[in-house]
Design a protein that fits this description.
Layout: H1 5-11, E1 37-38, E2 51-52, E3 61-66, E4 74-78, E5 82-86, E6 94-95, E7 105-110, E8 118-122, E9 125-129, E10 137-138, E11 160-163, E12 166-173, E13 178-182, E14 190-194, E15 204-208, E16 216-222, E17 234-242, E18 250-257, E19 262-265, E20 278-283, E21 287-289, H2 291-296, H3 298-303, E22 313-321, E23 328-340, E24 346-353, E25 361-364, E26 366-368, E27 376-381, E28 389-393, E29 398-401, E30 409-410, E31 419-422, E32 430-433, E33 439-442, E34 450-451, E35 461-467, E36 475-481, E37 484-490, E38 498-499, E39 502-504, E40 519-521, E41 525-530, E42 538-542, E43 547-549, E44 556-558, E45 568-574, E46 577-582, E47 586-590, E48 598-601, E49 611-621, E50 624-633, E51 641-645, E52 653-655, E53 677-680, E54 688-692, E55 704-708, E56 716-717, E57 731-733, E58 741-745, E59 751-755, E60 763-766, E61 774-777, E62 783-786, E63 790-793, E64 801-802, E65 810-816, E66 824-829, E67 838-842, E68 849-851, E69 863-867, E70 872-876, E71 881-884
Parallel strand pairs: 1-68, 39-44
Antiparallel strand pairs: 2-71, 3-4, 4-5, 5-6, 7-8, 8-9, 9-10, 11-12, 12-13, 13-14, 15-23, 15-26, 16-22, 16-25, 17-20, 17-23, 18-19, 18-22, 19-21, 23-24, 27-28, 28-29, 29-30, 31-32, 32-33, 33-34, 35-36, 36-37, 37-38, 39-40, 41-42, 42-43, 43-44, 45-46, 46-47, 47-48, 49-50, 50-51, 51-52, 53-54, ...
């Protein structure tokens, strides 16, 4: 609808590299602080009750499942925010993340026989609920490093299914290319399907082609002639190998000798043709002096024997010449020399055993090792006949079991399958979704298949197909064309399809982009779920606006209230107004303490504006709020845009004057420079500072600190910069001296830098912590810095004291009660999708701390702001909440 692929990738950050290459998923643990944590419950912090206060929508919803026996109960999975549950057909949701160790929710399922059992599958593994999805328990050994019973982004459609007659039997589709089965309610698992079987990885696999753009590629290995063989007895060289039934254009074996001679074989491309493991032998008749060698060293070539002296061969090269996008593969078990057997016949003498030593040197268009394992996208069980189980694989099409998963047969379908679906009325009918190959149907239990795409777009990629359990003629499917989405329904069992994509928007619940109109197109659908108790009711999880239909898909309306997936980047208060900036969604305002929200910008998709809003500055001037927001558009020519409103958001202007117009790449946090820091001089609102992360490179000036002296309309990069420009939220001005700037930086030269002259010069202040994500200056001049610990300075940055002792977390959110600076709140987070995080509070200046996380359904806020007028603490990052103090 409005989101580009790069934007969505960055939108789902959840941390510095899972977009931040998150690897360690751990359960939330206690925060170890310098003076200790108060673990005993108190009247205030036993279970602090936070209230959801954000709007809804605006993110990527990846999974959905209606409850099979409780009408109106619906679960919705969010890619960075866990699970939301509805009891009124999606009219309202509430987040139910208690017990989740990870928030990347990509598959959901509810048990038919036992309505209290539900499954939630994340990138960290499988979770099970026994109380109707109110709380979850992680199933041990299901993570990526163990069994990999996970659901992963774009590698899973329906990753778990249970037997409708026996809750103990559960099946899981793994991105690792396996189907698992449990017979004890998901406690233990065994593999019941794995493509290739045992032994497929014996020896070394060499893939020629489809790696890069080179026409030529090969590998080489040193060789040593075996001892105990008379040179005169040697008759050839050979391989134990198997091919892949391909026939590349040209393939050559080159031999180098200790005397410096080089020999090249004839075209031996036939070695790929047979896919059975066998011995292939080459004799002297297969070789001649290499032409290139003869050209470069004619004298040596003339003196060399016409065929190889096997005893002097010390290196072999096997190479292929063919089109770069044509692939051939060999699996090599060994290299051997052939010699006469004194007793008659010949013997082979192994000189390289690739089963023991797989290492070889390669060059050109080559990949060594096993091919990437094709995922199993989904698994489904027939309700009518639970012995029938169907799974969809990435490289083996649909596979069917008719004995509860014990044996499988591959069906004659396209190789890349998204999902299979049973017709529960007619046993012989099966449907399959095959991405770009469309939707197919079998009427003979999977023996033969026919493509049924009449009415579908030519480039439409089908992700899921669903059959009505009460009327076999009603079939539904979802898919996408790029970021655009599609829903189709058929009332003639797939013979023809009708498109229905207009979604009625609920701007009160999801106030973003009001200028798009009352109806918008469906965007990138991910799951289609049908209410078994009322099969005309359908729900789609999708990008931005999940939607519900009460008439079999003819009409759709957005339903997402309470399923807050927004990534808030800043929260500011002015009078009765609350302003919030967010990734992807822009800047919004609430005038009733978060009950309702109104979008300020962008009001519709604009290439030079739509994207991430990062930081806000709100300054009341003569009773009117002056607002500045920093933004990085998804598209357009400008990488940084400043949005300014002089009238409280009624109108706004954008400016890029003096700012970088190219994508900053060098030494950035998330692959490009973002304007994540903003500070206004408390004595002069026309003086504004802006922080953009990234170093100079390729003749460009990079990011760092920029200054405006006209309220943000024009900017100049300061000539002298802090020692590191890689930064997050780390910029503040000391209210007691507006010439004192505080800069928090990350990486090798990270820490805190202080300027006493408005940025003209800098001193390296805090050197003990190299990853400072945020800084804060109180009204009294006390400085705080959040990194591996919370640090405090009471002498303007000359010395620092650590107030915490964290392990494996980072302090990002920092807030101080302006009425009582001894009261503070911090958030401690990890940079992954795990739930390992929390909010902590002190009322004695950091001597002791209490866990203040309470009922937060997302335990890792990065923004904490206190509103003294309402005495409320607000938290944001994913799912915004507030709590009365």
């Amino acid at each position: 609808m409005i989101t580009t692929a790069p934007a969505l990738f960055l939108r789902r950050l959840s941390a510095v590299r899972r977009r931040l290459l998150a690897a360690t998923i751990v359960c939330a643990v206690g925060l170890l602080l310098a003076a200790g944590v108060s673990a005993a419950p108190t009247a205030e912090n036993a279970s602090p009750a936070w209230t959801p206060t954000g709007w809804s929508g605006g993110g990527y919803y990846f999974s959905a499942a209606f409850h099979p026996t409780r009408d109106g109960v619906l679960f919705l999975g969010m890619d960075v925010a866990g699970v939301a549950k509805s009891t009124d057909h999606g009219k309202t949701f509430r987040m139910v993340n208690t017990g989740l160790i990870d928030y990347s929710m990509y598959s959901l399922a509810v048990d038919v026989q036992n309505p209290d059992i539900a499954y939630a599958v994340t990138e960290a593994g499988l979770h099970k609920s026994t109380d109707g999805g109110e709380s979850w328990t992680f199933v041990p050994n299901t993570g990526r490093k163990d069994l990999r019973i996970t659901a992963e982004r774009f590698r899973s459609v329906r990753a778990v299914a249970s037997d409708p007659t026996d809750s103990n039997i559960v099946y899981a589709a793994s991105p690792g290319g396996k189907v698992y089965k449990s017979t004890d309610g998901a406690l233990t698992w065994r593999v019941v399907y794995q493509k290739g079987g045992v032994g497929s990885s014996a020896g070394v696999r060499v893939q020629f082609g489809k790696v890069n753009d080179a026409y030529f590629g090969g590998f080489w290995s040193p060789l040593k002639f075996p001892e105990g063989i008379a040179p005169a007895d040697a008759t050839g060289i050979g391989f134990t190998l198997k091919g892949d039934r391909s026939l590349p254009e040209r393939t050559f074996l080159t031999l180098r000798t200790a005397t410096g001679a080089v020999y090249r074989s004839r075209n031996i491309h036939e070695i790929f043709a047979d896919d059975h493991l066998r011995d292939v032998v080459f004799t002297a008749a297969d070789f001649e002096i290499d032409a290139e060698f003869a050209k470069k060293s004619p004298d040596k070539a003339a003196a060399a024997s016409k065929t190889p002296d096997w005893s002097t061969v010390n290196r072999m090269d096997l190479s292929r010449v063919s089109a770069p996008d044509e692939m051939s593969a060999l699996r090599l078990s060994r290299v051997f020399f052939v010699a006469k057997d004194p007793k008659g016949g010949t013997l082979t003498h192994t000189v390289r055993d690739f089963g023991r030593e797989k290492q070889v040197q390669s060059y050109g268009n080559i990949r060594l090792g096993e091919p990437p394992v094709g995922t199993v996208y989904s698994v489904a069980v027939s309700r009518k006949n639970p012995s029938r189980v169907i799974a969809a694989t990435e490289d083996n099409g649909l596979i069917l079991s008719e004995d509860k998963g014990e044996t499988w047969r591959a069906l004659a379908t396209p190789a890349k399958a998204a999902i299979g679906a049973f017709d529960e009325i007619n046993d012989a009918v099966i449907y399959g979704a095959f991405w770009g190959d469309g939707v197919w149907k079998s009427t003979d239990n999977g023996v033969t298949w026919a493509k049924i795409t009449k009415g579908l777009g030519a480039k439409f990629s089908v992700r899921e197909v669903v059959v009505s359990p009460v009327n076999s003629k009603d079939v539904y499917l979802i898919g996408a064309e790029g970021w655009g989405g599609g829903f189709y329904y058929s009332n003639d069992a797939g013979a023809t399809w009708t498109r229905s994509v207009a979604v009625k928007v609920d701007h009160q619940v999801d106030p973003t982009l009001p200028g798009e109109g009352a109806k918008v197109p469906l965007s990138a659908p991910t799951n289609l779920t049908l209410n078994p108790l009322n099969p005309r009711q359908l729900f789609i999880s999708a990008n931005w606006r999940p939607c519900f239909s009460d008439d079999g898909g003819r009409t759709w309306e957005e339903r997402v209230k309470g399923a807050d997936i927004t990534v808030q980047t800043d929260i500011r208060f002015s009078g009765d107004r609350t302003y919030v900036s967010a990734m992807d969604e822009g800047t919004l305002v609430s005038e009733d303490q978060g009950k309702t929200w109104r979008q300020l910008w962008p009001l519709k998709y604009e290439g030079e504006l739509s994207g991430h809003n990062w930081r806000l500055a709100v300054t009341p001037i003569n009773g009117v709020d002056r607002i500045i927001a920093t933004a990085s558009p998804w598209t357009g020519k400008n990488s940084v845009v400043i949005v300014i409103s002089e009238d409280g958001g009624k109108t706004f202007k954008t400016t890029t004057a003096g700012l970088p117009t190219y994508q900053i790449k060098a030494n950035t946090m998330w692959g490009r420079g973002y304007p994540r820091a903003l500070a206004v001089d408390p004595t002069n609102p026309r003086v504004v500072y802006l922080g953009i992360d990234g170093d100079p490179s390729d003749g460009q000036s990079g990011g760092g600190l920029f200054k405006s002296q006209d309220g943000g309309y024009t900017w100049k990069q300061l000539p002298n910069q802090p020692g590191s420009r890689r930064m997050y939220y780390g910029l503040a001005i000391d209210p007691t001296n507006s010439q004192r700037l505080i800069w928090g930086a990350c990486n090798e030269k990270g820490g805190v830098y202080i300027s006493e002259d408005g940025g003209d010069s800098w001193s390296y202040s805090l050197t003990q912590d190299k990853w400072i994500f945020n800084v804060h200056a109180t009204a009294g001049g006390t400085l705080y810095a959040g990194g591996a610990n919370l640090w405090r300075s009471t002498d303007h940055g000359k010395t620092w004291t650590a107030l915490t002792k964290l392990t494996g977390r980072s302090v990002v959110g920092i807030e101080v009660d302006p009425r009582d600076p001894r009261t503070m709140w911090i958030s401690a987070v990890t940079w992954d999708n795990s739930s390992n995080g929390g909010v902590y509070k002190t009322t004695d200046g950091g001597v002791t701390w209490t866990d203040f996380t309470g009922t937060l359904m997302h335990r890792k806020p990065q923004v904490l702001r206190f509103n003294p007028k309402t005495n409320e603490l607000w938290s944001g990052q994913t799912a915004m909440h507030k709590i009365q103090q």
